[in-house]
């Protein structure tokens, strides 16, 4: 009896894991050089306390979220040393080091934290070099897989030149494998491309915030990954009657519908939804298995008339 109970538990665990792993694999992958990133990834920002500041509310759960993500087959984790600050990268290392070979950790530099929980720009040569070394040390890796240069308020092309040149030099030195950009205009992406290859763009984009529609398509054409942050709306979770109706028709949650829409929107889109909960992580992973029929896509497209921030 004891044996059969154990066997059934084992079987259930194994089959759950297998179906989750299959779901992540079925979402497809995107290659950045030699790195193969699953289109379902995970963003670590929510592991810190409110406003990405301070320790997690539930440390054991935070570690479990990271381990569950990797066990489910996710190979793309997005983090930054300024989450916590520092604490989130320390959690990543504690949960996952030594890292499996197939796991790729993307990080961001270009901001710093102030005691009032602000995020001012930190784009000087000294600050960027320091930030890259901080990430290397806390994550305990010899080189960073992907570093996104996070711009702040400025949308002017010229303003990205100096900081991106610093990161390009660090890449030449072997401290960084691939470069991306974040919070950027189309002009800034093009200006960065003239300095070094841009492999990823990480901007605010989701079902109802579609200012980047043209940039999303342009990135796909260029072979650049487009990684939307706030895929679920961030702190103001996505809310729309039409979204709820479509989700109810499909028998899934509104969040799963929003994530499935992003996966459908462009093959270059890689998801990094953030959560501090294993249950929510599992729900988000399951979004990759949601099929959106044409009728649902039409309703979702009608939610917001696309507004174009970028003309390419
Ligand atoms: N480049 C940048 O400037 C920038 C800016 C912001 C974020 N990012 C990156 O992008 C990632 C994603 O953005 P985000 O985490 O801010 O926003 P998000 O993924 O749109 O939403 C995260 C929020 O949704 C909740 N949530 C997630 N899954 C859920 C589920 N299945 N059911 C109910 N609630 C759920 C989370 O709360 P729970 O913890 O309770 O699940 C959290 O409050 C971040 O983690 C970070 O890595 C980058």
Word description of this protein:
- The protein is of the alpha/beta class.
- The protein has one domain: TIM Barrel, CATH 3.20.20.
- It is built from eleven helices and nine strands.
- The strands form two sheets. The chain has a seven-stranded parallel beta sheet, covered by helices on one side. Strands 1-2 form a two-stranded antiparallel sheet.
- Helix 4 (125-139) links the parallel strand 5 (104-109) and strand 6.
- Helix 2 packs across helix 3, helix 4 (125-139) packs across helix 5 and helix 8 crosses helix 9.
- It starts with a helix and ends in a 10-residue tail after the last helix.
- The protein binds NADP nicotinamide-adenine-dinucleotide phosphate.
- NADP nicotinamide-adenine-dinucleotide phosphate (NAP) is lined by residues 43-46, 78, 108, 150, 182-183, 202, 229-234, 237, 255, 272-277, 280, 283-284.
- Residues 43-46, 78, 108, 150, 182-183, 202, 229-234, 237, 255, 272-277, 280, 283-284 line the site of NADP nicotinamide-adenine-dinucleotide phosphate (NAP).
């Amino acid at each position: 009896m004891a044996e059969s109970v154990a066997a059934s538990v084992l079987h259930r665990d194994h089959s759950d894991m297998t179906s989750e792993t299959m779901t992540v694999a079925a979402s497809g992958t995107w290659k950045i050089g030699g790195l193969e990133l699953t289109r379902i990834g995970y963003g670590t920002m929510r592991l810190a306390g409110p406003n990405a500041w301070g320790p997690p509310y539930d440390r054991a759960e935070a570690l479990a979220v990271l381990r569950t993500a990797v066990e489910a087959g996710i190979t793309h984790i997005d983090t930054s040393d300024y989450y916590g600050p520092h604490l989130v990268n320390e959690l990543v290392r504690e949960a996952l080091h030594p890292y499996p070979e197939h796991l790729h950790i993307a990080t961001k530099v270009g901001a710093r934290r102030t005691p009032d929980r602000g995020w001012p720009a930190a784009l000087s040569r000294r600050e960027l070099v320091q930030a890259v070394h901080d990430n290397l040390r806390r994550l305990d890796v010899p080189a960073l897989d992907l570093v996104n240069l996070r711009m702040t308020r400025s949308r002017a092309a010229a303003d990205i030149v100096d900081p991106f040149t610093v990161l390009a030099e660090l890449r030449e030195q072997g401290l960084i494998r691939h470069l991306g950009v974040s919070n950027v205009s189309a002009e800034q992406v093009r200006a960065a491309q003239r300095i070094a290859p841009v492999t990823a763009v990480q901007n605010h984009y989701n079902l109802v915030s579609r200012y980047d529609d043209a940039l999303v398509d342009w990135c796909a054409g260029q072979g650049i990954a487009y990684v939307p942050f706030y895929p679920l709306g961030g702190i103001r979770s996505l809310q729309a009657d039409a979204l709820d109706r479509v989700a109810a028709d499909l028998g899934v949650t509104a969040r799963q519908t929003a994530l499935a829409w992003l996966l459908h929107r462009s093959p270059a889109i890689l998801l990094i939804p953030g959560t501090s909960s294993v249950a929510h992580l599992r729900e988000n992973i399951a979004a990759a298995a949601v099929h959106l029929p044409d009728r649902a896509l039409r309703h979702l497209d009608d939610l917001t008339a696309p507004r174009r921030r970028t003309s390419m």
